[in-house]
Design a protein that fits this description.
120 residues; mainly beta; 7-stranded mixed sheet; 4-stranded antiparallel sheet; 58% strand
Length: 120
C-alpha cells in the first residue's frame, strides 16, 4: 500500500499564505500525477491543482493565479503554495496520486487531509 501524508495546514488570516506538502511512500518515478483537492463545509470535493509527471500543471478556475503546485526535490514532496487566501478557501485539503504501476492492486491513492481555515 501507498501512504500519503499531507502537512502545512492551519489557521491564517485573509490575505495570508500557506504552503501544503504531500509526501508519498512511493518513488516519484512511479507517480504519473499528483493532485490537490479540497472539500469545504457542505460542498463537494473539487480539484485545486494537478502536477503531471512531465511537469505539466492544471488549476481549478477559482485559483486565478493565487496558487502554485510544484515539486520540492529537497523534501521529496509535492507542495501547494497558496497566496491571497480568502475565507472561501476554508476546506479540508487532500492530496491524491495516480501511479504509473499499480501498488497493492491500485493506481489511485488519497491522503487523510489537512485542514485550512481562513479567517476574515
Amino acid at each position: 500500500q501507498v501512504q500519503l501524508v499531507e502537512s502545512g495546514g492551519g489557521l491564517v488570516q485573509a490575505g495570508g499564505s500557506l504552503r501544503l506538502h504531500c509526501a508519498a511512500s512511493v518513488s516519484s518515478s512511479n507517480i504519473e500525477s499528483t493532485g490537490w483537492y479540497r472539500q469545504g463545509p457542505g460542498k463537494q470535493r473539487e480539484m485545486v491543482a494537478g502536477l503531471g509527471h512531465d511537469g505539466s500543471t492544471i488549476y481549478g478556475d477559482f485559483v486565478k493565479g493565487r496558487f502554485t503546485i510544484g515539486r520540492d526535490n529537497a523534501k521529496n514532496t509535492v507542495y501547494l503554495q497558496m497566496n491571497s487566501l480568502n475565507p472561501e478557501d476554508t476546506a479540508e485539503y487532500y492530496c491524491n496520486i495516480f501511479l504509473r504501476r499499480s501498488v497493492g492492486g491500485r493506481y489511485d491513492y488519497w491522503g487523510q487531509g489537512t485542514q485550512v481555515t481562513v479567517s476574515s
